[in-house]
Structures are given as C-alpha cells and as structure tokens.
Amino acid sequence: MQLLELDMLVEFDRLCQEHGINYVIFGGTMLGAIRHQGYIPWDDDADIAMLREDYEKFKTVSSQLNKDICYFQDHTTDKMYRWGYGKLRRTGTAYIRVGQEHLKCKTGVFVDIFPMDDVPKAVPLQILQDRYCYCLRKVLWSEVAKCQSRGLKKLWFRMLSHIPTDGVFRLLSVYTRRSSNASGNRVRCLLFPATGTLYVKNPIRERYSMPKSWFTERTCYEFEHQQLYGTKDYDSALRYIYRDYMKLPPEDKREQHSPVSYIDFGNVEPIYLTE
C-alpha cells in the first residue's frame, strides 16, 4: 500500500512542478521523511498540504494526472464524497474503512490533500471559526455517525445526514473565498480538527492555526529514494504536532490510523519501487 501511495505522490509532484503549484508533504509523511527518509514503517497513508490558491489551481489541472496511476476526488468530482479535503485515489484499487461500508463514494488506496485556508488574526475569532467549522464537519460526518451511534445521538445524526452537502460547502466558502497566498494570516484546514489541538496542548494563540511560511518556504527531502517538497522549517512544524518527534513510540502504539474492513489491490503493481 505504501508503494502504491508513493506512485501517487510522485505523479502529484510531477503535475505540480509542471504547473508551478506549491505543496508540502505534511504530518506523518513529513515526520517519515525526517526520521526514516521515507514512510513511518507502520503508517498506512500519506498526507499533502497546500494553500487554498494552490489547491484550487491543482483542481483545474487534475484531469492531467496519469489515469493509470490515480485520479483526484473531492465533493466536486464525486457527489457522494463527504469530506472537507481532497484525495488522490489509486486507480484499480479498493479501500474501505470500518463503519464506512455503506458510503457510496468511490474508494481506493489514497493520499489525503489538505487545503489550508486563512483564519482570522484575532484568537477569539479563530475559536468562533473553529466551532462553526466543527458543526459543518459533523454534518458531513453524520452519514457515518448515524450508523455508529445509539439513542438520541443516532437520531440527531440521522437528522443531520439529510442536510445537503452542497449547502455545507457553500457555508464554508464564506472563509475559503477570502484566503490569499499573499496575506499575512495564519492558516489551517477548516474541515479537519485544528492540527494544534490534535496531539499536544499548544499555546492558545497557536492552537487553531499555523504559520503560512510552513507552506510557502519549501525545500526538497528524500522520501523512499524520491525527492518531494516539504516545509523548510520542519523542526518547528514537527514539534508543533509531535513535540519530541525523533523519539519512537512504544511498540504497542505503532498502529495504523483506522481499522479497515476491505482492501483490494487488484492487479496494480507499484511503479517507483524503492531500492
């Protein structure tokens, strides 16, 4: 699975370089590049982050991806897709997480692509924005949650699941259309939990956003014998998420992200095999 994802990362990098689009590998993928020069051995996915302008530009050229390798998926290319960020899906594969068997969107081995949007400069407004986006995220999640919840929660999520997803993304656009690569605002992926709250208790002024420079000031890193772009200030970015990021977790904590109910690699073979 990691090798199939590597194919998608290399193909994504090719298209971005052809069109002058900036991206960085992010999260566990950036950590893997620094600590392992490739994947974290027990990792099961890959993450990319892009500022909103670059994300929208990539969407306009995503049809130029090699379809034998992958395709781009979000709510505009797949009406059944319910997440607030995009994915590259590996052509000819299937990948279904536990609890999502009933979803009707296309599946496959994937790479997440997170759009980073401007947040307000005032921390109280960042917190209000976070609550607003939390509600939007729960509407999107409701199609899964209604099958995993009980009692009043189940009823509540069942009601939320009837809200059209197009309405959610129209509400989100209140923020996304204001995002600019040139602004001095900090950024985050709005329909994903704020990165600064996921792993450690960062100071309140940093918890709901990240410096835009982490996504504009880039350099290449070796990743499974390939060259991919990541933030130049990797130390600050990784400490923000993981604190002591060079320390390996205990063996019983080295787990995949989510339980999987079905994987089918089909007849797909990796292209960019590691040495």
Quick structural overview:
With 275 residues, the protein is α+β, with helices and mostly antiparallel strands. The protein has one domain.
Walk me through this protein's architecture.
This protein has 275 residues and is α+β, with helices and mostly antiparallel strands. The protein has one domain (2-264). Helix content is 38%, strand content 17%. The chain contains 10 helices and 10 strands. It has helices at residues 2-19, 28-35, 52-61, 123-148, 151-160, 165-176, 195-198, 204-207, 213-216, 234-242; strands spanning 24-25, 47-51, 70-73, 86-90, 94-97, 110-118, 187-188, 218-223, 226-231, 260-264. The strands form 3 sheets. Strands 1, 2, 3, 4, 6 and 7 form a 6-stranded mixed β-sheet that branches. A two-stranded antiparallel ribbon has the order 5-10. A two-stranded antiparallel sheet has the order 8-9. The protein is globular.
Largest sheet: 6 strands, mixed
> What is the approximate shape?
globular
Average residue-wise pLDDT: 95
Number of domains: 1
End-to-end separation in angstroms reads 16 Å
Q: Indicate the low-confidence ranges by residue numbers.
A: none
Helix vs. strand class? alpha+beta
Compressed to H and E, one letter per element, the order equals HEHEHEEEEHHHEHHHEEHE
Strand elements, count = 10
Number of helices: 10
Share in helix: 25-40%
> Which range does the strand content fall in?
15-25%
Determine Rg (CA atoms, Å). 18 Å
